[in-house]
Specification:
The protein is an alpha+beta fold. It has three domains: 3-152, Triger factor/SurA peptide-binding fold (Orthogonal Bundle), CATH 1.10.4030; 177-189 and 293-381, Chitinase A, domain 3, CATH 3.10.50.40; 191-288, Chitinase A, domain 3 (Roll). 51% of the residues lie in helices and 16% in strands. The longest helix is centred in the N-terminal third of the chain and has 27 residues, at 60-86.
């Protein structure tokens, strides 16, 4: 039976499962001793559709094409799994749990809420976690084996030149890249504003302990856009994935107890831990931030301007970064942001300012939503049509990816011929 006819059955099954939370199960494919169940295929197609924002009712052709791709991918994964077992590739249980948690959080974020994710999946998150755990493990084993194979692929200078010669007219234009460092000065609120925020959160705690709804107060007051509409709930989070002070309180507080205000770089929180399971918890919080005044802005700007006058050389700039920068991820490496694309940088004010900054000198203070920045532009790579002189690393990377892709396609095609593969609709 053809893929298209097989998938038309799956579409009916998927739409039925979403409205009635039932599965029309059976074997979708057999690869040696491994099988792919229709329910597993439906689950994977649903998840991939969420990630690609494809609605089968609005775009059935794209959905059928997606299913074709997914079933072939699952068959290839089973082949890789067979090969990985021969090479004794293993994955730790902790790795699977972490990857599955990330997958679930991404699905919830892409769907818009846990409820919408469950509706799209056709099952509860709890059931999805239980059923998908072994599939996740198999996928990770297969991917690790694939990576092990591809790591042996390399390109020579001749390969890169031949790739460029063949594809030079189809390689897209590259953006200008700039190697830049920064020193971040935060705009800190006054002690009076901090105390006012703490008192407000303590009042909310009193109201909650008196019977008020935590969820309603979070929706009304919390400044965390990712959780406020969900009653402040962050869902299940792993140890090590939260800021330190918040995490310490969340893991040590008694279940159902409301914390006192906790200060982090995001502001002040009160939190409640709802459930604990080993190294993960289900927690909710209300976030408030002290008011920033014009006086606070002026104080931060004045400090940034003073530091700018002291940064006459790159060495001096690095020392100032180490002593004063609020960016913990870069302060120990001299504020190095690496090579960035100014047009698409995550802090747009930095990208917009770069074209006005003289190379090899400290910029004036640049204002952004996270404070003031002093920038030091070290080097520049011209954009435009790629050439081997200016863009060798980028072209080398493209050539390597192309070689890996071609090698893998040839390898998996050969591997398919060594295994018994049967696709069935029943």
């Amino acid at each position: 039976m053809s893929f298209k006819k097989l998938f038309s059955i799956f579409i009916i099954s998927i739409l039925f499962s979403q409205s009635n939370v039932q599965y029309i199960d059976g074997v979708a494919a057999v690869i040696e001793d491994h099988i792919i169940l229709k329910s597993d295929l439906i689950q994977m197609v649903n998840m991939t559709a969420i990630q690609n924002r494809i609605d089968p009712r609005l775009n059935p052709d794209a959905f059928i094409q997606l299913q074709n791709s997914v079933v072939q991918s699952m068959i290839d994964q089973k082949i890789m799994l067979e090969m990985a077992e021969l090479d004794s590739i293993t994955i730790e249980e902790k790795e699977v749990n972490q990857a599955l948690d990330q997958q679930i959080q991404m699905l919830i974020a892409q769907a818009g809420s846990e409820e919408l994710a469950e509706k799209a999946l056709g099952q509860s998150i709890k059931d999805f976690r239980r059923e998908f755990w072994y599939d996740m493990k198999d996928r990770m084993i297969s991917e690790r084996y694939q990576q092990q194979l591809l790591n042996a692929i390399a390109v020579t200078r001749f390969d890169v030149k031949e790739f460029y010669k063949t594809y030079r007219d189809s390689i897209p234009h590259l953006p200008m890249k700039v190697k830049v460092r920064h020193l971040q000065i935060p705009i800190n609120p006054s002690d009076m504003a901090k105390e006012k925020t703490r008192k407000f959160l303590l009042d909310l705690k009193t109201k909650i302990n008196g019977g008020a709804s935590f969820a309603d107060l979070a929706k009304e007051h919390s400044l965390d856009p990712g959780s406020k509409n969900n009653g402040g709930e962050l869902g299940w989070v792993n140890r090590g994935s939260m800021v330190k002070k918040f995490e310490t309180e969340a893991f040590t507080i008694e279940l159902g107890q409301i914390s006192d205000p906790i200060e982090t770089e995001f502001g002040y929180h009160i939190l409640e831990t709802l459930e604990k399971q080993g190294d993960k918890i289900r927690v909710r919080h209300i976030l408030m931030a002290p008011e920033i005044t014009q006086e606070d802005n002026e104080r931060a700007y004045s400090l940034a301007f003073t530091l700018k006058d002291s940064a006459n050389t790159l060495s001096e700039f690095k020392v100032l970064v180490n002593n004063h920068s609020a960016d913990k991820t870069t302060k120990d490496i001299g504020g190095d942001l690496g090579w960035i694309d100014p047009a698409n940088y995550t802090v747009p004010e930095i990208g917009q300012a770069i074209k006005y900054i003289e190379m090899g000198s400290c910029s004036p203070p640049i204002n952004s939503s996270i404070g003031f920045h002093l920038l030091w532009v070290e080097a520049l790579k011209r954009g435009g049509r790629p050439n081997l002189s200016d863009h060798w690393p980028e072209i080398e990377s493209m050539a390597l990816n192309k070689k890996k892709m071609d090698w893998y396609r040839k390898w998996i095609a050969g591997a398919r011929g060594k295994f018994h593969i049967q696709i069935t609709a029943n």
